[in-house]
Specification:
This protein is of the alpha+beta class. 39% of the residues lie in helices and 10% in strands.
């Protein structure tokens, strides 16, 4: 994982743009990963889920068209189904909640709320 913060970014998303604006505003150095163009592997998703301390269904955008096509709302949210969810996220990165910021301290944040953005300041060493 990165030494400096890395943001999994979709420039078309207002929450994602707000996170980069926040990082710029606190003077954080970070790298940008346009995860729709450079999708994470299943192994990378497992590592990020561990850093987030979340399950894959907790970072899945179930309102996306592909989610509806796959019937994700009806998928079990169990340990036995975990790999199925991870595979779906790897194969369809549009399903990944955004933005995800991998912090320099080894953590990660789904930076969608003002509270999550505020946590980025301390995690970025600012």
């Amino acid at each position: 994982m990165p030494a400096a913060p890395e943001i999994w970014h979709n420039p078309r998303c207002s929450k994602s743009r707000a996170a980069t604006t926040h990082l710029d505003g606190i003077g954080a150095e970070y790298t940008v990963r346009r995860y729709l163009d450079d999708p994470p592997t299943a192994d990378e998703l497992r590592a990020v889920l561990a850093r987030l301390d979340r399950e894959p269904w907790e970072i899945t955008r179930t309102g996306e068209a592909v989610a509806k096509e796959l019937g994700l709302r009806d998928w079990p949210r169990t340990e036995a189904a975990r790999e199925r969810w991870i595979t779906a996220l790897a194969e369809h990165p549009v399903l990944i909640e955004r933005p995800i910021v991998l912090t320099a301290d080894g953590g990660a944040v789904v930076a969608r709320t003002p509270e999550a953005l505020a946590r980025l300041g301390s995690a970025a060493g600012r």
